[in-house]
Amino acid sequence: MLSIPSCTVVPQQVPSDAGIAGAGVLLSSTITAGLALIMSASLVFQEFMRSPRSKSNPSTIRRKLINGYSDQQIMVGIGIQSVGLVKTSTLVPYHFFIIWMLSLLSMATHNATLLTLVRDFQRDRVLRWLRQLLMFVNLALSCVYGVFVLQSKIKGLPNTLPIGCVWAADAVVPEPGSDEKSMSAGGLDYVGTIVTIAGNVVVFVLATWYLQSSMQRWFKTVQLVGLVLMAGIAIGAAVRVFLLSQAFGNPDVTLSDQGEKSWSFGQLLSMLMLILPVVSAIEIMRGEIKVPPPLEEDIQPLFDGQMEDSPKVVNRF
């Protein structure tokens, strides 16, 4: 997996990768992020519209579900980026960029859940600093991805070569037929990539301040504005992925097959995993109901007095 990429021969086509850009993978990631954003928005708007004199509604079920989504999104972002970096010797820029966009989607969704659950994290110092560590790891991986993408734009890496070839400058062969129009489009890509990296750093700094600060001034306003901003980033990343993918749009590389459009076992499994939040909601609802007392046979002593007649063992030491 950590082999040296072959950068001397530029292939005309590359195989598809349904595990990264398959229809089921993209839909399940987007739907999961959408559910987390909708529930976070419902809680934020509920708190924003609630009168100070009204009784507080804990919204236990939604908060527990959002907490689960928050953990899932931050771990998904770290996981897919780590796997992508390990496979830089085989992943082409097309798949590498989709991984980066999916990680931005998960990071924006996690930040939206963080805005909703910030007071819960502030009650526990261990959970707060653990969350901070995971956010930093996710940011570092995202910046590394941005550097890879920026290098591929600067060096004019052919779309069919592995992304790891950006560090083999002598072996990279420029794509034939490049003209001034394509170079001007590349200039826009440079700016967009740099702005994305800088935006991730700024969002991380603001999220760190918001998570660690004990003085929550304009708490509701910060929640509302931050949620709108994170929703915009998530929607932008999702739209970019769908427009670029083979399953729903037009990829910028020639693929040798239509594997990303087919609904294989892995794609169907990704969609079936969307049922888990429904099961979790039912379990949480059942947990909120008072549990009945144990049955009579459950409260009987284990030995039922049989040990009382046994001789006692005297300790002679």
From TrEMBL:
Keyword Phosphoprotein tagged: no
InterPro entries hit by this protein: Elsinochrome_Biosynth-Asso
Residues annotated as transmembrane: 20-45, 66-86, 92-117, 129-150, 190-212, 224-243, 263-282
Keywords, comma-separated and alphabetical: Membrane, Transmembrane, Transmembrane helix
Highest taxon in the source lineage: Eukaryota
Protein name: Uncharacterized protein
